[in-house]
Amino acid sequence: RFSHVCVLCGHPGLEDEEERGERWRRDEERRDELRAVAAAMQQGDQGVWEAWLRRWYSQKLFGDIAGSDGFDELLRRRRKGRPAELAEVVTGHSAGRLPHVWDWVRSCRVPALYVAGEKD
Length: 120
Hints:
Helix content: 40-55%
Shape: globular
Number of strands: 2
């Protein structure tokens, strides 16, 4: 049992089955992209990872992060990542695969704090 709940930038999941299915399809596509990036890197193409990262961060979700002063440093850190492992994380933790917890959220009987930033 919990006496309190604090959720930081979390999401209770997708209730709508159609929306969950679409998210799962997108995450499978992303997984396949990342696997292809990993394969290209094994063949010596190291630039493919940075190109993928630049496309990723150009999404509307991230606003103008690519134009920010710290973007080069962010890319430097992210280039250390492993796309093959990230591919499995994308589908393993997909909101299209995981069950939603909206029923729990609606029935929660303990004090709960949900914290999200303006851009979360």
